[in-house]
Each structure stands twice: as C-alpha cells, then as structure tokens.
Amino acid sequence: MSKIKLTGHASGTGVLTVTAPNTSTDRTITLPDSTGTILDENSSLPAANLTGTVADARISTLTASKLTGALPALDGSSLTGVGVDGIVSTANATAITIDSNERVGIGETSPSGAKLTIKSTDSFPNNDAGAQLYIMDQGATSSRSAALGVRVNTVHTGTDAALITVENGSSSCNALRIDNRGTGNTFNFDGQFSMTSDGRGLSQFTAKAWVNVNCPSAVIRDSHNISSIVDQDTGRFDVNIDTNMANANYAISSGGDNSETENYVKVATWVIDAGKFNIHCHILNGTKIDLNQALAIVFGD
User: Fold this and answer.
1) DSSP line for 29-92
2) pLDDT at res. 238
3) E strand spans, 47-200
C-alpha cells in the first residue's frame, strides 16, 4: 500500500501542529495524486490554473486578492452580468474603438483626426436603414420655445472653420439631403434663411415667387410659389401667389420678349394684394400684346 511520510524542513525551528476539529464525525482527507502545494485561505492561486467548474458558494467568497497572473481567454458568449447598465451588445467583432486620444471609431478600429469616425462598407437600402448616423427623437413634446434635436456648437474662428462640412465622394448622390417630414416644419438658419416643408427658401435675398407665362396660350411654362394665372385681356394677366406674402409691400421685377415682331416691348407689373399681382404687356406705342413669354420675379416678406 502507499505510505504517508512527513518530512520537516532542515533549516526550520518551528513546530507544525496538526489539530483535529471539534467534531464527532469521522472524516477522510484524500490527497491529490500529483506533486504540488496544498492551498489554504491565505494562498495565492494563479488564474491560469483555474480549470473546470467551481461551485457558486466558492465563487461568492473568492476575492480579487486571491487571484494572480493573467486570466485565460474567456468565451464572452457565455458571460452574463458583466455588461454596462443601458448597453446591450450582440456584436461578434470589434464594433466600437476608443483610442488613447479619446477618439471614437464605430466600424473603424483606427480612428484618426475626428473625435468620432463612423465607417461602413455595407450596402444599404434607400431608406432610414441606409443612414450611417440616425438620430430619432420620439420624446414627449417639449415645452421649450426652441426644442433641439441636434445641436452643433464651435468656438473656432477663421475662413476655414465650419460647423458642418459635407464632402461627397460620389458624383451620383446628393451631397446634402434634408427631408422635412413634418407638416408646417421649417429649417431655420439663425433667422437669416429658412426652408419650409413645401420646398420654399425664405430670406431677404431669395425670391419668394417667380413665373414664366406663355401669353398666347395663357399657360404657365414654369413657376415657383405661383398657383395660377387668370387671363384678363390681351397682354394682361392676374398672377395668384400660392403662399401669400406677409403684406402687399413687396417688389416685382419683370421682363419679356416677343418673337413675332422686332418692336420693343414693355412689361409692367403692379401689386394687387398680398396674394396677387398683375402683368401688363404692350409695345412702346401702348398697344397691348400677348408676348411669347412674360417673366416676373417677386421679393419681399
């Protein structure tokens, strides 16, 4: 049979005492069939030596001070309770990288320059799923007079400084596209320029309306913010503005041509009200004439 041998240390002077516990039950201590050191509660256990399974009761009392060395590779798919509150990840590769300069890369493992780099080589459909950055604000209606979905602010100055720069690497797509899906919503640029949901650009330096009229046929060739024309007489048309001006104090510039005669023509316009103006075409002797085209452009509030 195997034998048990207790050997003292040649240099030590201490006395090692094996003490039995206060128990009335027979116990058997089975030594492992290997060479090593028996551990106690004060021993350090290299993490690389952890294999197999450990009872939950043992894990609950295992402190970090008892672990030394590097942890072995762990299969993250089996881990639970190790994430950050509010973040759920099902990624199977590196999705977000934060480098030593606190630059963040999404789909980019080596972000450079910008604080946030978003990169994708995927093919996306022509809808919201195709956006590289999609911000959806579905919170309760704000009581603020100027609620903000996204705010961009900078303290940089200089001719090259810009809040937003759009660079288009393709000649077959829009460099900048803004979809205004709300009814009556307006994109406002510091009160100097705004774009309405019906496609109008509003400012003191943009035309509020314009029209090109084929006078002989009494039809509109093309226009902006013009709903219709009414043929009043030879060379005379009332032009109805689709979205009315703020008042009748707007200005109109007009012109035209007559391909059937070399006579000089005159195109006069005058304001009727905030939603209508008149075009009057005649040659220099005052004779009214239906011009090949009469043109008018409107500026104002």
Assistant:
1) PPPPSS------TT--EEGGG--S---HHHHHT--GGGEESPPPP--GGG--S-S-TT-----S
2) 93
3) 67-68, 96-98, 104-106, 116-118, 186-189, 193-196
The pLDDT tens digits of the residues spanning 241-261 come to 998 998 999 999 998 887 655
Domain count, the chain: 3
Determine the number of helices (DSSP H) and then strands (DSSP E) in the chain. 1, 16
Q: Which domain holds residue 284?
A: 209-299
Could you tell me if residue 108 is inside a domain? yes
Co-location of 187 and 228 in the same domain: no
Measured in degrees and rounded to the nearest 5, phi and psi for residue 107 equal 75, 5
pLDDT per residue as tens digits for the range 28-51: 888 888 888 777 777 776 766 666
Question: For 12-30, b where at least 16 C-beta lie within 10 A, e where not — what string?
Answer: eeeeeeeeeeeeeeeeeee
Q: Flag whether 49 is in a domain.
A: no
Cβ atoms 267, 294 nearer than 8 A:
yes
More confidently predicted of 90 and 296: 296
Cα–Cα distance, 272 to 252 (Å, whole number) = 12
